[in-house]
Amino acid sequence: MAIKITCINKDNGNHENPNLAITHLGWINEADNSKGKNTRLEIYNWIKNDGGYCYVEKNGNKVKVITAETASGAKYLKTEADSTTVNNLLSLPEC
Q1: Which site from 52, 54, 66, 76 is most exposed, i.e. has the minimal number of CB atoms within 10 Å?
Q2: Cα angle at 60 between 66 and 78, to 5 degrees?
């Protein structure tokens, strides 16, 4: 199953890594139109441990969402490199 990340929720904390501010991600499975919202760690674990596939659509292109960890071990999500250096997840609207 592949899901398209459509929106995010962020906390209002001050983070050294802005990706850690993402608390929840809203998504849609375009194959069956199911929708949901999960925590950052739930999506992280689904990708990392269960082979899940997520993407963000930008300008008609699908950009893969991948897992990452900070030097201190905090788990977060980011998009693969594309034509921009910005994490496309952070550009999504609030859920």
Answers
A1: 66
A2: 15
